[in-house]
Specification:
single chain, Rossmann fold, 2 domains, 5-stranded parallel β-sheet
Length: 316
């Protein structure tokens, strides 16, 4: 069996795979361009999900399974994949811990005025009249409440926050205090102090956040986007922030990445930009490869109970 990586993991990972699965043939290419030479032999492709194109799927005449070591799938050539009935799995779920910690971090950053305190430290200014807030008793709304949202909810409940979850069905278990469907969420928006968007990029979520949504929010509300940047139009968000309709926006994802240096988001005082980093820690690839190995063992044995199977028709 030929397994082709379209990226080069570090030597420790390579040695682990080669020594543990000696009957398999492993190729670790530095890029998709280098991997193209081996596509016709590959039965399994391991990718970050952003480099495969229709022509690559056509060239991979023996391909049976694609493992995407990330959660994002919006750049995958699903039409070609579906035609050839290729299995696709991804690393959904590995981001829950780091993204939940990131979300808590920016919420505390906002509530405790950490940016202002850092400026005062820089200026050697001793000022104790900084208006501090608490998370205790406030309300967080998590829109796109899957595995990541549930992890965030567990953490926020430890701060005695009220947590509202929003998903397609409108039903969610503990730790959510309330649940709404995407269609009904407007009635809860005015109650939220923190709105956390974890929406994927799908036809139904592109430009999901519109002006009426932001107008329903409190003037003191904080909008946090850690899902996909195309869930909100840049102009809609800039208009909202320029009009001070909400207090602050923390953005880790953007329609176009890297965010251009001349983009208005960088200059906006009430917008904080981070470089799509909420899910990245040293444990990113180890967690991804745990899922890959679990599925690889099943694949070798001819079993089908794979973890994180993607519906290629829906794209997620």
């Amino acid at each position: 069996m030929n397994i082709l990586f379209t990226f080069e993991p570090n030597q420790d990972f390579q040695q682990h795979f080669q020594s543990t699965y000696q009957d398999l043939h492993w190729t670790f290419a530095k890029s998709i361009r280098e991997a193209e030479k081996r596509l016709s032999d590959a039965e399994v492709i391991v990718t970050y999900g952003e480099d495969l194109r229709d022509q690559h799927i056509e060239q991979a005449t023996n391909l049976k399974w694609i493992m995407v070591v990330s959660a994002g799938l919006e750049k995958m050539p699903f039409a070609s994949i579906q035609k050839k009935n290729i299995l696709v799995t991804n690393a959904r779920g590995i981001h829950a811990i780091p993204m939940a910690e990131y979300t808590l971090g920016v919420m505390i950053h906002h509530a405790k005025q950490m940016k202002l305190l850092a400026q005062q430290e820089e200026e050697h200014l001793w000022n104790r009249r900084v208006p501090m807030q608490e998370l205790y008793g406030q309300t967080a709304m998590i829109v796109g409440a899957g595995a990541i949202g549930t992890r965030i909810a567990h953490i926020l409940k430890a701060f005695t926050m009220n947590v509202i979850g929003v998903n397609t069905s409108g039903t969610l278990p503990t730790p959510f205090d309330e649940a709404y469907s995407m269609e009904d969420m407007d009635q809860a928006l005015p109650n939220a102090d923190y709105i956390i968007s974890i929406l994927p990029s799908t036809p139904s979520t592109i430009d999901f956040w519109r002006k009426p949504h932001f107008k329903l929010m409190k003037s003191t509300a904080v909008f946090i986007n850690i899902g996909r940047g195309d869930a909100v139009d840049d102009k809609v968000l800039l208009d909202t922030m320029n009009n001070n309709e909400i207090a602050h926006a923390y953005l880790d994802v953007f329609k176009h990445e890297p965010l251009p240096s001349e983009h208005a988001f960088w200059k906006q005082e009430n917008i904080t930009v981070t470089p799509h980093i909420s899910s990245i820690t040293k444990k990113y690839l180890p967690r991804s490869f745990e899922i890959f190995e679990q599925n690889l063992k099943l694949f070798i044995e001819g079993q089908e109970d794979f973890q994180n199977i993607i519906d290629v028709k829906r794209g997620y």
